[in-house]
Amino acid sequence: MASQIPTEQWAQVIEKTGGPVQYKKIPVQKPGPDEVLVNIKYSGVCHTDLHAVNGDWPLPTKLPLVGGHEGAGVVVAKGQLVDDIQIGDHAGVKWLNGSCLACDFCQQADEPLCSKALLSGYTVDGSFQQYAIAKAAHVARIPKDVPLDAIAPVLCAGITVYKGLKEAGARPGQSVAIVGAGGGLGSLAQQYAKAMGLRVIAIDTGDEKKKMCLEQLGAESFVDFATSKNVVKDVQAATADGLGPHAVLLVAVNEKPFQQAAEYVRPRGSVVCIGLPAGAYLKAPVFESVIKMISIKGSYVGNRKDSAEAIDFYRRGLIKAPFKVVGLSELQMVYDKMHRGEIAGRYVLDTSK
Ligand code: NAD
Ligand code: ZN
Ligand code: ZN
Question: How far apart are CA 332 and CA 67, in angstroms?
């Protein structure tokens, strides 16, 4: 088996913060004792990868860096301590590449909060290469009947919005506003919300995203944040009784909606912050927040169980979100479109091209 693994591979590498990414050949690494080497077939491109290129966040990346954390592929090598995943199994390299499994948070299955967490495509090399390494305990187990291109976006976007919807606490029949609905997280959020029995109000901009949300993803209404004269009123008006959505999932990449959501959420409702716009602050009026008894919280990816559940929703045929496949070599084009807000759904890279 090992003889089939090349010594060199194609990868997209960030040499310096600010980019651009460089498509070039780099060595294939060998997995450590508790790691697996995954031959990545497809990798989704998350907006987080663009934040990493731009150095947007108060957390430095490794440099040089191979980005990517929605990598779906086949296990081709494993360390000697690994016995619960086999060569030939399908696996996903997700944002959480590894964690200590021993700290207070890891013990409670809150491993995204582990202070020693390794982050794919950020603090360790990720999935924008043909062969990526991850801790065996953390790679997502992907059933063989699930297509690797379609499952790639689930490995970050899907897991994250599924977890966020659980954190929102909304019950079947209640309404959720998805802010940033036309993007990668937002498109999957609509499908998970629908599968969980929630009624969706989609918020984003442009006719292409509007059509996708209403005709493909199951949103009941769409509010265009760029053309609406009053987003707060329009979102509230989109709920059956005009009192506003029970939950708001903020997956947008701009600060403004993080300062509006508390105004239109329903009394007793929850605002779940997921998007991570650079340098942004949350704002909510104290008076209304108190007398409406609203909750505002953050939600960060998901644990191993959330990951398995999110993949199972997909396997059961409940999740269908549009994605476009292009070659790994075309990553810079994807970033340019993402920067301009032009992507409806997700781009997935085919690492063979
Ligand atoms: P994306 O670029 O695919 O989508 C973002 C969408 O937000 C776009 O459709 C854009 O039109 C929309 N938008 C911009 N301004 C808006 C506004 N004012 N109101 C409503 N919509 C607006 O990005 P993505 O890959 O879906 O990622 C979204 C964000 O989530 C990024 O900041 C990313 O880093 C973050 N993220 C967080 C987690 C987490 O665990 N918390 C996980 C993954 C991604
Ligand atoms: Zn991501
Ligand atoms: Zn830990």
Answer: 12
| Secondary structure E strands in 274-322 | 295-298
Burial class (CB in 10 A: 0-12, 13-18, 19+), 329: middle
- Which residues does a 6 A CB cutoff place in the pocket of ligand 1? 46-48, 51, 156, 160, 179-180, 182-186, 203-205, 225, 251-254, 256-257, 274-277, 299-301, 338, 341, 343
Distance between CA atoms of residues 252 and 268, nearest Å: 23
DSSP H/E element including 232: helix 231-237
Q: Which residues contact 211 (CB under 8 A, 6 or more apart)?
A: none
Query: How far apart are the C-alpha atoms of 190 and 179, rounded to whole Å?
Result: 10
Closest-approaching ligand to the CA atom of 114 = 3
Question: What domains are defined for the chain?
Answer: 2-156+302-350 (3.90.180.10), 158-298 (3.40.50.720)
For 153-167, what is each residue's pLDDT tens digit? 999 999 999 999 999
Q: For 73-105, what is each residue's pLDDT tens digit? A: 999 999 999 999 999 999 999 999 999 999 999
C-alpha 137 to ligand 3 mean position (Å): 12
DSSP label at 31?
Answer: P
